[in-house]
C-alpha cells in the first residue's frame, strides 16, 4: 500500500512540475499582479475586460485587456492580463469577474499607440472646453 501512495505522489509531483514549467515559460515579460482590477460600469461608462488573444491550451488561459469604456466602446487600454475561466485553483480570484488573474503583461505596441491617441483626444477635448 505504501508503494501505491509513493507512485501516486511521484506522478502528481511530475504533473505539477510540468504545469509549473509551462506557467514559467508564459511568464516572460510579466509584471507583478498587485491587486485584481476593479471592473464596474454604470450606463456604459467604467472599466471592462476585452479580448481573447494568445490562447494557451495547457493552462486554459488567454490574454485580456482592461479598458476604460465610454458608452460600451473600449476607449483607453489600461492593462493586459493572462486570465483563465474561474473554476480552477490559481493565484488571485476576483469576486467581481468570472476570471482568475494569473499575471499582468505589458501593453502591446498597438495598444500603446491606441492609449496615446486616446489621451491626445481627451486632452484636446479638455483644452477645447477650457478655451471655449
Describe it for me?
This protein is α+β, with helices and mostly antiparallel strands and 132 residues long. The protein has one domain (37-131). It is 36% helix and 35% strand. The chain is built from two helices and six strands; from the N terminus they run H-E-E-E-E-E-E-H. Strands 1-2-3-4-6-5 form a six-stranded antiparallel beta sheet, covered by helices on one side. It is elongated and about 55 Å long.
Our Rg estimate from Cα atoms comes to: 20 Å
What is the structural class?
Answer: alpha+beta
Name the average pLDDT: 77
Tell me the strand order in the biggest sheet: 1-2-3-4-6-5
Instruction: State the helicity in percent bands.
Output: 25-40%
Largest sheet, strands/sense/barrel: 6 strands, antiparallel
How many domain modules?
Answer: 1
Instruction: Provide the succession of SSEs.
Output: HEEEEEEH
Poorly predicted tracts of residues: 3-19
Q: Total strand count, please?
A: 6
Distance between the termini: 83 Å
Overall body shape: elongated
> Helix tally?
2
- The amount of beta strand, in percent, is 25-35%
Q: What attributes does this structure have?
A:
2 helices, alpha+beta, disordered N terminus, 132 residues, six-stranded antiparallel sheet
Compact overview of the structure:
The protein is an alpha+beta fold.
Describe the SSE topology:
Layout: H1 2-26, E1 41-42, E2 45-56, E3 61-70, E4 73-85, E5 92-93, E6 99-105, H2 109-131
Antiparallel strand pairs: 1-2, 2-3, 3-4, 4-6, 5-6
Amino acid at each position: 500500500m505504501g508503494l501505491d501512495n509513493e507512485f501516486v505522489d511521484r506522478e502528481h509531483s511530475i504533473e505539477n512540475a510540468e504545469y509549473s514549467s509551462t506557467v514559467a515559460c508564459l511568464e516572460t515579460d510579466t509584471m507583478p499582479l498587485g491587486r485584481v482590477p476593479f471592473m464596474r460600469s454604470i450606463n456604459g461608462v467604467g472599466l471592462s475586460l476585452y479580448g481573447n488573444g494568445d490562447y494557451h491550451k495547457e493552462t486554459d488561459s488567454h490574454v485580456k485587456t482592461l479598458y476604460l469604456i465610454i458608452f460600451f466602446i473600449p476607449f483607453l487600454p489600461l492593462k493586459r492580463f493572462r486570465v483563465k475561466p474561474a473554476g480552477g485553483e490559481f493565484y488571485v480570484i476576483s469576486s467581481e469577474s468570472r476570471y482568475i488573474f494569473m499575471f499582468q503583461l505589458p501593453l502591446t505596441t498597438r495598444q500603446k499607440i491606441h492609449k496615446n491617441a486616446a489621451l491626445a483626444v481627451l486632452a484636446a477635448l479638455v483644452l477645447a472646453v477650457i478655451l471655449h
